[in-house]
Amino acid sequence: MSNVSGIIKSIQDIMRKDVGVDGDAQRISQLVWMFFLKIYDDREAEIELLEDHYKSPLPEHLRWRNWAADPEGMTGDELGDFVNLQLFPTLKNKLAVSGPTGERAKVIRNVFEDAYNYMKSGTLMRQVINKICEINFNNTQDRHTFGSIYEQILKDLQSAGNAGEFYTPRAVTKFIVDRVDPQLNESVLDPACGTGGFLACAIDHKRNRYVKNAADEAVLVASIHGVEKKALPHMLCTTNMILHGIDTPTQIEHDNMLSRRAYTDYGEADRVNVIVTNPPFGGMEEDGVENQFPATLRTRETADLFMALVIRLLKSHGRAAVVLPDGFLFGEGMKTRLKQTLLEQCHLHTIVRLPNGVFNPYTGIKTNILFFTKKPEAVWPATQEVWFYEHPYPEGVTSYNKTRPMQFEEFATECAWWGDEADGLAARVETPQAWKVSLDDIAARNYNLDIKNPHVGEQVSHDPEELLQQYRAQQQDIQSLRDQLKRILAAALERDA
Question: Does the pLDDT at position 335 exceed 70?
């Protein structure tokens, strides 16, 4: 079981022989619903040992153990017909979503509403199922192995080219959750939760530090919330939550938080204590989504809309950490107004500037983590100064890659320097990596937060992504100057006429 990449590769090689499966995205989608049913069945077997009267939301003949577990079981056309004519129609539309098993049934229905069986050959499907059956997800070692399988699926998913979606490295999610430190009874939301990396990390954090008994565990389970608009990441997130001991993750919703309702309709009842997220950047929302937002915050850029929503959804004194590209820091127009709103309504206390390559090999875009706390209106503007921390590469490392990803241990210097927001920020000191900038200076810069480390001499970047971003920004400036000139000329011509 150690060669996880080999297992996934062998399963995908089998799928490649099937004429119905076209491309990586379909192979992964096929793999994920099969894994979901196997994991669900293994988890049910575990619950049955603890609960005498457990009742499955699935009809007996549709439980994995009864149609898939026997390596000599159904195959060929019989298996294909069973999956297409019985399994899928029932899981999509016919489970009882009320009554004692209703909540569990809803989870399964939500996972399968956009799932499909792409495989045409029941014989090849049997070979894939038998491979999956080799894993026991109640065995600690195999469950740990699934963590690796899961990461392999994510890498393949990224290679399948989902624009703007970069799954956050585990080191970054762990550092963010460690710094934000969600308490046991605090509600935690990721409004663009993807495959659930931040939420899984928050569960581990609370469990390791604050859960002492079954009542605490129930509080933890109720505190985790996520929303994901795409079917495949939503399916992966739900599976991830079950693997993390949340058996009925109904609070992982399949929806688009940006369009589900108007910005002004999100009220106090929707607000949460903690938001940790890496919204898709570089992506554009479909026409009309921006109309859900006030005129001053309208844009079609996904990350900016999420940032506006994060500020709105935080409770007073709620805490957030958001991963954003450099383009947010230096961007103008709506981005300027959004940054002004952020600095006025929240205490933006820390921006960690991550080095190139954190998201390699999927993108070279430079990223930052913004840490902030929502403040009551009485103390606006809430930010008086912003601390910047430039995260350096470890000694001997010049870039990250698949074989040398970022490690959580690299954040030890930040953690030692950090201080507590209640009183410890005043004790922070400038270092070769850390510096602070006053709100007045930021306002004078027209809220440009792309502030270089003053302890390092001016460096010329040769990074293509960075140069492209600078080029785009310059083109925007040139276009706005052209528009301005056109308006002046038009006004002059009107006067002359």
Answer: yes
Inter-residue contact 202 to 188 (CB < 8 Å): yes
Please give the pLDDT value at position 54.
Answer: 94
When comparing pLDDT for 218 and 134, which is higher?
Answer: 218
Q: Which bin fits 226, alpha (ψ -120 to 50), beta or left (φ > 0)?
A: beta
- For residue 324, give both structure tokens: 């954003």
Q: For residue 163, what pLDDT is reported?
A: 44
List C-alpha distances in Å: 440 to 340, 368, 381, 383, 489.
Answer: 12, 22, 11, 10, 35
* Contact yes or no for 188/224 (Cβ under 8 A): yes
pLDDT-derived band at 463, boundaries 50, 70, 90: low
475 or 261, which is more confident: 261
CA 366/CA 328 separation, integer angstroms: 11
- What's the predicted TM-score (pTM) here? 0.87
C-alpha span between 198 and 224 (Å, rounded): 10
- What is the rounded CA–CA span in Å between residue 415 and residue 412? 5
